[in-house]
Design the sequence.
């Protein structure tokens, strides 16, 4: 087995050109359902993270997307599901999406940049936010969002399924079920 990291878009492209056999990534409307099958594995709520002082200040005021857009943001690469979703939220609130200070899909780098910045924030999945609290010292701003991130899914080519791919999918589902229950 070989593991590759990248954006969902990059990995799905490699799945379609037969470089990869399976992809675990965020569901996206950009995929071609005629070529790729998708199985939703789990959903994740979003969390806003910030450095300690900024998180404390933000926690004292109600959620205001206009004010948040004025902060320094660390976001994923353009055209990734989370980046598109964050942009939609700002547009829905009647304000332009923030231009990111940094773009990265490395959770550790996101946490380190946010922790080091006086005005820096990011939106990440809840489980990653909790890990970044421990690893980098960021804090989770206690806002409640009425939306969830695009779900994490297992993608396979629609044609030519192999028994080993099915075995992997079954094992992955069992592992997730065991970890999500505990």
Sequence:
């Amino acid at each position: 087995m070989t593991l590759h990291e990248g954006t969902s878009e990059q990995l799905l492209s490699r799945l379609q050109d037969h470089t990869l056999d399976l992809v675990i990534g965020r569901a996206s409307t950009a995929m071609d359902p005629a070529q790729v099958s998708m199985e939703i594995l789990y959903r994740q709520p979003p969390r806003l993270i910030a450095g300690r002082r900024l998180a404390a200040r933000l926690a004292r005021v109600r959620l205001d997307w206009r004010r948040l857009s004025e902060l320094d943001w660390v976001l994923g690469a353009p055209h990734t599901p989370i980046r598109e979703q964050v942009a939609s939220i700002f547009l829905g609130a009647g304000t332009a999406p923030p231009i990111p200070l940094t773009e990265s899909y490395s959770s550790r780098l996101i946490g380190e940049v946010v922790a080091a910045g006086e005005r820096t924030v990011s939106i990440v999945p809840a489980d990653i936010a909790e890990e970044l609290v421990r690893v980098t010292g960021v804090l989770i701003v206690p806002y409640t969002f009425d939306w969830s991130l695009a779900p994490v899914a297992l993608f396979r080519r629609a044609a030519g399924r192999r028994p080993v791919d099915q075995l992997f999918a079954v094992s992955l589902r069992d592992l997730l079920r065991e970890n999500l229950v505990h």
In short: The chain has a mean pLDDT of 89. The longest strand covers residues 36-42. The chain has seven helices and eight strands.
